[in-house]
Amino acid sequence: MNIIFDTLRFLASTIPIIALASFLVSYSINKGIMEKISAKIEPLLSRLNLDQVTVASVAVCFVSPVAAYSMLAQALKENKIDEREVIAASFLNSFPATFSHIYSFFIPFVIPILGWAGVVYTALRLLVAMIKSAIGFILALKWKKKRVVVRREVKGSKVDPLKSTWDNLKRVTPIMAVTYLIVSILSAYGFFDSFKEIFRFLPLDPNVITVSAVEFVNVRAAVVLAAGMLDRGILSPKWVVIGLILGNVITFSTRFVKHSLPLHVSLFGRLGVKIVVLNALATLILDVIIIALLVSFP
After folding, report:
1. What is the number of other CB atoms lying within 10 angstroms of the CB of residue 78?
2. How far apart are CA 7 and CA 13, in angstroms?
3. CB-based contacts of 16, cutoff 8 Å, min separation 6
4. Which of 12, 92, 103, 105 could form a disulfide with 136 if both were Cys (CB 3.0 to 4.6 A apart)?
């Protein structure tokens, strides 16, 4: 009975926050906040002595990464930029692409469920994206050949905030309820204690592997699983963050192949494979470094 009560308590404490955050995000999207960010950022980027195609791509990426890469593909086809400049722009686009994902996923879901651990995890995702964008900026300056004036207006899609919030709750509530219930049952029967005892030779908390493995299947379930472990004291915030980042490392090849590769190959052909591989390797290296640093902290 306590297991069901704990699950209901978890849902009651998190669903209203998720609903509010989802509504606010949907409302701001409906009001064109991302388009306004895009419009404001383009003049600032233009002062950085970057090629205007690259500037326009980065600005548009805040609204639509697909539109941004389509713009680069068209510019490449018209010989306005070369392949090296496309690669540099793909790195530069890391921050706006991640920012839009944080805006639509991390803020309305990860942070309400994980609290401060979610804030730290979100900040680290942004940090990785910023480092990759900095690498892209250096490459873009080094490889730039000419300046082409480009202006492209991209309009974001309109959404019904109430419908969008309801659809989001319908999608995530069953995952949250089932995952947290499973965590409660396994915890009540001492599964996590036994698991930790069996794999105590590992240089990290073995339950971290559980979070990472679940993330390989479903990232939302992994976040809820981490929240359940955090709530019951099975994992500390530090190990929750490590588990989720490790999940990124484990799933990075599958994620890039499943989501990024088809788009980039359809737009750039063989160059698309190179773009995906280089970005994936950069993300992997940065994630491994962050995990090593977090593990070294007491």
Report:
1. 10
2. 10
3. none
4. 92
Domain locations in the chain? 32-150, 190-298
Which candidate, 188, 177, 243, 187, places its Cα nearest to that of 216?
A: 243
Computed on alpha carbons and rounded to an integer, the radius of gyration of the chain in Å comes to: 21
| Distance of alpha carbon 14 from alpha carbon 19, whole angstroms | 9
Q: Tokens for 164?
A: 């969008």
Tell me the whole-structure pTM to 2 decimals: 0.80
Q: Do residues 238 and 297 touch, judged by C-beta distance below 8 A? A: yes
* Cα–Cα distance for residue pair 75/104, rounded to 1 Å: 29
Q: How far apart are CA 240 and CA 242, in angstroms?
A: 5
In contact, 230 and 192? CB cutoff 8 Å = no
- Reading the chain (298 residues) residue by residue, the pLDDT tens digits are 577 777 778 788 788 877 887 777 677 656 666 566 656 666 666 666 677 777 788 888 887 788 888 888 888 887 888 888 889 889 999 998 888 888 778 988 899 999 999 999 999 999 999 999 999 888 887 876 654 444 444 454 566 777 877 887 888 888 888 888 887 787 776 666 665 555 565 566 778 888 888 887 788 888 998 998 898 888 899 999 999 998 888 776 566 666 677 778 888 888 988 998 899 899 999 999 999 999 887 7
Burial (CB count <10 Å: 0-12, 13-18, 19+), residue 245: buried
**Which residue shows structure tokens 């490392």?**
249
